[in-house]
Specification:
The complex is a heterodimer. By secondary structure, chain A is α/β, with parallel strands linked by helices. In chain A, 37% of the residues lie in helices and 16% in strands. Chain A contains 24 helices and 23 strands. Chain A has a 6-stranded parallel sheet with strand order 3-2-4-5-7-6, with helices on both faces. In chain A, strands 12-11-10-13-14-15 form a 6-stranded parallel sheet, with helices on both faces. Chain A has a 6-stranded parallel sheet with strand order 18-17-19-20-22-21, with helices on both faces. In chain A, β6, α7 (137-149) and β7 (155-161) form a beta-alpha-beta unit. In chain A, α3 (50-64) runs parallel beside α5 and α9 (190-202) packs across α14. Chain A starts with a strand and ends with a strand. In chain B, the strands form 2 sheets. In chain B, strands 5, 6, 7, 8 and 9 form a 5-stranded antiparallel sheet that branches. In chain B, 24% of the residues are buried. Classes of the chains: A alpha/beta, B alpha+beta.
Chain lengths: 609, 178
């Protein structure tokens, strides 16, 4: 017995683990932990919903590279964390969630606010703990942070019964952890690196396929050296936007379902995919059997289970992104100085033609409705491409990824794997807490925004300013797009009236600033106004064209060869896709088969790439 | 060959069986049988899992299993390099005219009669799963009242075996430096 309680031991352990901020909400079972917080160096931010706490911790983690910490009470508090935990699990975000639990004596008794949160989160956490002995708290917290941040990062939940928090104990921060069942490989095998370098040297059409793991490992600087040593084009998945600057001549941007033609086609035609911490997700590969059919595969990942899961590999490499990329770089650089760098001029020429000829494009008519892409373009200009961008999920997310230039790494945060609508507002809040010097812009949809908008209250109270640009198209836009394309324009339950709620009044009610743009000429004005406000959050209601669809598009399950660049006829209405997708690429020269890249007269703007 | 026997050492803690079972369920892996018990080290349990790898590769199943923090070691036991056994208790209808015949069958299978009443017998049989299947088939005509099988347990042949990893503490860097 010592001088501490389980609760004070918990807070000391969190401090020792380096916690600076906890996003949370107190409640009955976690109450004891909130008392020693009053004397702690840790900043606790009182959120308005536990889901907001979880996403804020995710935003914080992605923005800073440090683990995010969130806290909630038992039962409903804990179950409200499930969505962020599942999101963090899919996107490999280091998170430690602390939940209160009913007292040990009544566990299993259906006590008030009891939920088996360890059982519930088993499939969506990297690991979880139920702490039944107060003396174990420091060790468990040390292990939780170790597991969350090493190997393939992920969320860890620690559930602590109320009476364990109240019990007397002593605090001793462990000097080491030993988890015999958890020994992730960090250093790559030299033989695999050599084999990979050999494939790289002999490749004629190599592509670096870069995924979110490179960002989690903060290995963007190493990646740049490797990419330049090989001289190969780089595709950056949604989770890796900015891994190499969009300004860099080798950067092709995002591949996949709504990816750039150049990125998609470069992978399809490649003879070697140098896959770095990406996972051959279906949104990237489209139909797996026809994905990059001529490519040999190098696949490096911290998680051996990802290697070979979806696509057979030629050279598997298990290890952390940093050591792997540096080892590859050294080997490639050595080979370059011995044999000279493989000449990829012809390949780069071809790729650059695609890049030049098929940029992301849209048409903003002067007197027409605001195009959502025009808003994103204006945001890009206003921020000079240097904002920390956070998105929700849907059309706006894809437009943000396509059009916002990612010139700095670790500055594009999105919900990728789980696709969690409602991610943007709380994640932007958490990102701004982690990087207060950065300008944070959340690009959100009207559907998404309404799922977590209550965190504007938190942002106002905590004086955490960021801009939320709502691309208000009065619909669950991506679902509407699929109904237009694949369900014969039979729109079912996708309409969200554009004026309900009144987003300006809503922002005002929270104490934030609300602005609105209804015509193209308003767009720049309201953005300029928003950029001038730095003491509170700003919500901009952009009333955009409800009919606008997101292109390019590869219908779900279709081959990446069947990328549709834009609706093939002059109006976006009545488009049919899926059954007879426009063919391009493949055996035919793309020029002969390319659908028109914009569908109406007026000034066509290519997004700056 | 889609049936594989995995020998898995796990930490002997509450919830580990649930983690393993939940992993199989959510990844869509099929378990044919699972037997679990303590090993020579009380902190470690051994699970013998027979998996049907028709829809997913045994390599992917092993790798996913390995990601569970409480899973210490995994090895696949190929049929020809392992001793495999299963235990079954079979309760079968018996009467004066059939009793002798049942005992005869039991003898052939080296099964023991462990319970007898005027109308029923319980046989205890052990061996490879195929042997138990065969015994069961022969007893069907008498009327099987109840049957329980343990699922397969297995050990690799020869002196070497699956051992829990040695301690290997990782020093914690105090993260509060920033």
């Amino acid at each position: 017995m010592g001088s501490e309680t389980g609760a004070s031991s918990l807070i000391k352990a969190l401090e020792a683990a380096g916690t600076e901020v906890i996003f949370g909400i107190p409640g009955g079972a976690i109450l004891p932990a909130y008392d020693p917080l009053l004397e702690s160096s840790i900043r606790h931010i009182l959120m308005r919903h536990e889901q907001g706490a979880g996403h804020a911790a995710e935003g914080y983690a992605q923005a800073t590279g440090k683990p995010g910490v969130c806290m909630a009470t038992s039962g409903p508090g804990a179950t409200n964390l499930v969505t962020p935990l599942a999101d963090a699990y899919m996107d490999s975000i280091p998170l430690v969630a602390i939940t209160g639990q009913v007292p040990r004596a009544v566990i299993g008794n259906d006590a008030f606010q009891e939920a088996d949160i360890c059982g519930i989160t088993m499939p969506c956490t990297k690991h979880n703990y139920k702490v039944m002995d107060p003396d174990e708290i420091p060790t468990v917290i040390a292990e939780a942070f170790h597991i969350a941040t090493t190997g393939r990062p992920g969320p860890v939940l620690v559930d602590i019964p109320k009476d364990v928090l109240q019990a007397a104990t002593s605090f001793q921060w462990p000097s080491s952890v030993d988890l015999p069942g958890y020994r992730p490989t960090t250093e790559p095998h030299a033989r695999q690196i050599a084999a990979a370098a050999e494939l790289i040297r002999n490749a004629e059409r190599p592509v670096l396929y870069v995924g979110g793991g490179v960002m989690k490992a903060r290995a963007a600087a190493d990646l740049l050296l490797l990419a330049e040593a090989i001289g190969a084009p780089v595709v950056t998945t949604l989770m890796a936007r900015g891994a190499i600057s969009d300004n860099h001549p080798l950067c092709l941007g995002m591949p996949g379902m709504h990816g750039n033609y150049a990125a998609v086609t470069a992978m399809q035609r490649s003879d070697l995919l140098i896959t770095l911490c990406a996972r051959f997700d279906d949104r990237v590969t489209g139909n797996l059997d026809s994905f990059a059919p001529g490519a040999k595969i190098i696949h490096a990942d911290a998680d051996p289970a990802e290697i070979g899961k979806n696509r057979a590999v030629d050279v598997p490499i298990v290890g952390d992104a940093g050591p792997v990329i540096r080892a590859l770089h050294d080997k490639v650089a050595a080979a370059n100085s011995q044999h000279g760098r493989t000449d990829l001029g012809a390949w780069l020429g071809e790729v650059n033609t695609w890049k030049r000829d098929y940029p992301i494009s849209y048409t903003q008519e002067e007197n027409g409705p605001i195009k959502p892409q025009f808003v994103v373009d204006a945001l890009a200009r206003a921020t000079g491409g240097d904002a920390l961008v956070v998105t929700g999920v849907g059309q706006h997310q894809m437009w943000a990824s396509q059009i916002m230039p990612c010139n700095r790494p670790y500055s594009f945060i999105s919900s990728g794997g789980l696709g969690t609508m409602g991610f943007a507002v709380p994640a932007a809040f958490g990102a701004k807490v982690g990087r207060p010097e950065d300008r944070v812009v959340a690009i959100d949809g009207d559907g998404c925004f309404q799922m977590t908008a209550q965190e504007l209250a938190t942002a106002v109270i905590e004086k955490v300013p960021f801009t939320v640009a709502i691309l208000n198209n009065a619909h669950l836009g991506m679902v509407r797009q699929w109904q237009e394309l694949f369900y014969d324009e039979r729109y079912s339950q996708v309409h969200l009236p554009q004026e309900t709620p009144d987003y300006v009044k809503l922002a005002d009610a929270y104490g934030a600033i609300g602005l609105r743009a209804t015509a193209p000429e308003d767009v720049e004005t309201v953005i300029d106004k928003a950029m001038g406000i730095d003491d509170r959050p700003v919500v901009i209601d952009f009333r955009v064209d409800p009919g606008e669809m997101c292109f390019p598009m590869i219908p779900a399950g279709a081959s990446n060869d069947d990328i549709i660049l834009a609706p093939p006829n002059p109006t976006p209405r009545g488009v049919r896709g899926g059954s007879e997708p426009q063919r391009s690429g493949g055996e035919r020269p793309p020029e002969a088969a390319m659908p028109q890249a914009s569908f109406s007269a007026g000034k066509t703007k290519g997004a700056d790439r | 060959m889609s049936s594989h026997t995995l020998s898995v050492l796990v930490e002997n803690q509450s919830g580990v069986l649930a983690r393993v079972a939940a992993l199989f369920a959510r990844r869509g892996f099929n378990i044919d049988s699972l037997a679990v018990g303590e090993t020579e080290d009380p902190a470690v349990s051994r699970m013998t899992i027979v998996v049907d790898a028709r829809n997913s590769s045994i390599e992917q199943i092993s790798k996913q299993l390995h990601k569970l923090i409480n899973v210490l070691r995994i090895c696949e036991l190929p049929k020809d390099a392992a001793v495999e056994r299963e235990l079954a208790l079979v309760k079968v209808n018996s009467s004066r005219p059939t009793k002798a015949e049942i005992v005869e069958i039991a003898d052939i299978f080296k099964a023991k009669v462990v319970d007898v009443t005027p109308t029923s017998m319980v046989l205890e049989a052990s061996g490879a799963s195929e042997k138990i299947d065969a015994l069961e088939e022969l007893l069907v005509p008498f009327g099987i009242l109840e049957i329980v099988r343990t699922g397969r347990i297995a050990l690799g042949r020869g002196p070497s075996g699956l051992k829990a990893p040695n301690p290997h503490p990782i020093t914690l860097v105090r993260a509060a430096a920033s």
